[in-house]
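Structure, all two chains, one model.
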Amino acid sequence: MKGRFGRFGGQYVPETLMNALIELEEEFDNAMKDEEFLKTYRYYLKEYDGRPTPLYYAENLTKTLGGAKIYLKREDLNHTGAHKINNVLGQILLAKRMGKKRVIAETGAGQHGVATATGAAKFGMECEIFMGEEDIQRQSLNVFKMKLLGAQVTPVKTGTKTLKDAVNEAIRNWVSNVDTTFYIMGSVVGPHPYPTMVRNFQRVIGDEAKLQILEKEGRLPDYIMACVGGGSNSMGIFYPFIEDRDVQLIGVEAGGMGIESGKHAATFYGGSTGVLHGMMTYILQNEEGQILPVYSISAGLDYPGVGPEHAYLKESGRAKYVYATDKEALDAFIALSKIEGIIPALESAHAIAYAMKIAPQLDKDKIIIVNLSGRGDKDVDIVSKFMGVSL
Amino acid sequence: MNRINEKFAHLKSNGQKALITFITAGDPDAETTVKAIKGMEEAGADIVEIGIPYSDPLADGPTIQESSMRALKNGIKIPIIMEMVKKARQMSEVPLVFLAYYNSIFKYGVEKFLEESSKAGIDGIIIPDLPIEERSEISNLMNKNGIILIPLVAPTSRERIRAIVENADGFVYCVSVNGVTGAREKIGTDLKSYMNTVAHFTNVPRALGFGISSASMIKEVKDYCEGVIVGSAIINAMTRFQDRGEMLENLKAFVSELKNGLSEVKI
């Protein structure tokens, strides 16, 4: 069925948006067949974003752990500091192609907001970013950056005042301004065609990683690990490997203070099928379908749903989903900084944490690729607080 | 015959239009909701829409969002709402329509939800986040329970209107503006051409909703439709009072004012 991944996905949105989604899908399909569009997209990925990003052999980390060989896909080296810009460049070129002058976006950690504000500045578009009040406090550096880039940052005061509510508010704003506005969704979530479109604009991560590992090792990796909030960096690196059955795909969710504490954002642990933000997927909800408050130390993973394609990969067994707690992510954050001289985003630190857990149990000839989806500059404030250091 | 169709047939034969009023189940409390349903009917409401509070109401503006949050804080759950509907139904024959987001129904169990709604005395359901593309999951089960799934059209629907209103029953919910629910000063949409398009494809009554907040606005729009829907303005009228008695009195006064706006003959 169109717009479905098995039983997941779909378009559960107000009628007002349906024609806009249909139009978006047509435009996206045409753009993907338009060599000129693809050439422009690739040009900006290379010249503006700085791609390809390296696939870096983390020799120190590998030796310290004493097991499998660990490679890091350095998405932290993208312009604006995370993988989010890959998708933004694609969508903003699409917005331009559709003649839209105004873009809006939701943001959690602020990475997608900064990337969108950056794209809007570059391509001369009006830009409004919706961000939960709670997240605005947690990520003041990114809020400042967005404003500096010329975007309007609108605090979202409803519900849990985090990413979920920022998405609600962005959708509401889109409904009200559907004729003039392009909604740049930041993850592989939302109604069709967003999950497919965002995945296609992020698959460059996996496409590059595949070529790079073949070049360096002459074979495919045994494991690919990536953190999962909505799931765009993980979907981006997983997708080109889906048909390579020997490559194990592992998504790492945010375990927060532990699953049993109830304070987490691990959708596949305790979640069930439902509808959120226009998609059918796994969500954290109560028995009456009310969305539950979620928690993670990283604002970017603090989301009660997950992309519908992930739900499908999980149900079909093609990918496996685990979680790392706040504590494990913090330990990984510190370890990677000390051992490799790379400060990862707290989100990405969840994937590092899981790699650190299983690498020592694996033979030395095994290969792990971890998607280092973003850099940690934005998180030093939070981490210093946890370490008891005042800046 | 379904109460909604009966009501519209009756109104039509008297040359009248329908006043459809919205209330959130459980705001401010379950008992008041039941009294409000009865009170609104007495004051002239022809159909009552009962909102099932949801944590993430995408199609709603601040007024209904806040109303939903209050109801949820009160611990309102679907079984309690079913009991409320039963009580209201014992006192009144006014057509009752649920407004529910799809996840509420899906998680509760579509079949179970429809069966219980039907038994409680519900006549129709409006699901603001279920476009025709996703309708089949529920529409097959509707007829069995005698409940009507009310279709929604929007000003952006254009060529989709034909498919949306095909086999429509009860009424067509015509969203008046691009936006979310909430009291507005005026409606910017070209209602004449929009509502004519809807009428071109269906004979089912057209009810206009979103943003309609006063008797004077009703006077402006009523010629384009067979019914008007008032939601956020009703909630606003209620929340002006803490005392339940005053709240209900004020609600009734407001509804009868709206009704007068609807009944008034243009000279």
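The first helix of chain A runs from residue 18 to 32.
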